Amino acid sequence: MAEYSVVGKRLPRVEGPAKATGASKFTGDISLPRQLYGRVLGSTHAHARILALDTRRAERLPGVKAVITGGDTGGRMYGHSPGMADQYPLAVEKVRHIGEAVAAVAALDEDAAQEALDLISVEYEALPAVFDPREAMKPGAPQVHDVECNIARTFQEHFGDVDQGFQGSYYQRTDVFTTQPLAVGAMEPHASMASFGTEGSLTLWASTQSPFRLRKFLAGALGLEEGLVRVIKPAVGGGFCGKHGLFSNDFCSALLSTRTGRPVRMALSREEVFTTCGGRMPMVIELKTGVKQDGRLVAMEARVTADNGAYNRGSLTPMVLAGSLMNLPYRLPNVRYAGYLVYTNNPPTGVQRGAGNPQIRFAIEVQLEMIAEELGLDPMDVRLVNALHPGDVTANRFQIRSCALEECIERACGTHRWKERRGRLEEGQGMGLACGDHPVSGRSGPHDSSLALVKLDQSGTATVLTGAADIGQGSDTTLSQIAAEELGIHLAEVRIISADTDATPLDLGTFGSRVTVIAGNAVRAAAAEARSQVFEAMADSLEARIEDLEARDGRVYVKGTPGKSVSFSDAVSEAISRGKAVLGRGLYDPPTEKSDPVHGGNTSPSYTFGAQVAEVAVDRDTGQVEVVGLTVAQDVGFAINPMGAEGQLEGSASNGLGQARWEDLVRREGAILNPSFLDYKMPTALDMPRMATVLVDSMDPEGPFGAKGMGEGGLVPTVPAVANALYDAMGLRVTELPMAPERVLDGLNNRRRPRK
Amino acid sequence: MAEYSVVGKRLPRVEGPAKATGASKFTGDISLPRQLYGRVLGSTHAHARILALDTRRAERLPGVKAVITGGDTGGRMYGHSPGMADQYPLAVEKVRHIGEAVAAVAALDEDAAQEALDLISVEYEALPAVFDPREAMKPGAPQVHDVECNIARTFQEHFGDVDQGFQGSYYQRTDVFTTQPLAVGAMEPHASMASFGTEGSLTLWASTQSPFRLRKFLAGALGLEEGLVRVIKPAVGGGFCGKHGLFSNDFCSALLSTRTGRPVRMALSREEVFTTCGGRMPMVIELKTGVKQDGRLVAMEARVTADNGAYNRGSLTPMVLAGSLMNLPYRLPNVRYAGYLVYTNNPPTGVQRGAGNPQIRFAIEVQLEMIAEELGLDPMDVRLVNALHPGDVTANRFQIRSCALEECIERACGTHRWKERRGRLEEGQGMGLACGDHPVSGRSGPHDSSLALVKLDQSGTATVLTGAADIGQGSDTTLSQIAAEELGIHLAEVRIISADTDATPLDLGTFGSRVTVIAGNAVRAAAAEARSQVFEAMADSLEARIEDLEARDGRVYVKGTPGKSVSFSDAVSEAISRGKAVLGRGLYDPPTEKSDPVHGGNTSPSYTFGAQVAEVAVDRDTGQVEVVGLTVAQDVGFAINPMGAEGQLEGSASNGLGQARWEDLVRREGAILNPSFLDYKMPTALDMPRMATVLVDSMDPEGPFGAKGMGEGGLVPTVPAVANALYDAMGLRVTELPMAPERVLDGLNNRRRPRK
Question: Which among A31, A465, A587 is the nearest to B579, CB-wise?
Answer without folding.
Answer: A587
